[in-house]
Amino acid sequence: MNKKNALIIVDAQRDFGLEDGALYVPKGEEVVPEINRLRAALGDVDVFLTQDWHPEDHMSFVTQHPEMAVFQDKTMEDGSVQRMWPPHCVQGSRGAMFLEGLVRVDTDVVVQKGRVRTVDSYSGFASNDGHSEVTGLEAMLLKRGITHVTICGLAYEYCVGFTGLDATKCGFEVCVVRSCTRGLSEADCATMTAKLVDTGKAVVVDAVEEAVAWAA
Length: 216
Hints:
By secondary structure, this protein is an alpha/beta fold. The protein contains six helices and eight strands, in the order βααββββαβαβαβα. The chain has a six-stranded parallel β-sheet with strand order 5-2-1-6-7-8, sandwiched between helices. The chain has a two-stranded antiparallel ribbon with strand order 3-4. The mean pLDDT is about 95.
């Protein structure tokens, strides 16, 4: 099988990457120049951008659960545990737009997620329950003959990491580039790194140069 790499840029959006964003990831703005550098170094690869795209009454928003506080976990009626988030990346809002300065071209594919009100979607492939929302990312990658994916964006221990985990389940080899991501919690980031590595199909590298060598 010939090796073919794609770049997946996860949720590089204003609400995550600006200090006045609804769900700011500390130093999230720093990923933009690093992602641009990664993209340039990888050369002519297919690029996919995931985009959180929530309805304004999404069930993960703390505003839908007056008894809860932001970042608390709530056990839902179906038994799943949902973390409470501030309203963010609402469809059509300024906060849902991609970060300024992020290099994009007409051939990039935008994959929207989190559109189903009743379930959260960390991964760019599917909702957290695996079936309520399927974005089509897997099918698009397979159609293009992709075997390896390089992943970056925001936030590492949530949408970046879960996109990586789902990519391994779909059979892709995965490289996550830490210099091109930021996270909310160092402890949770370390846990996600362990989960990715434990799949046996993912590596986590520190720098752009390491990612380029892996993709070669």
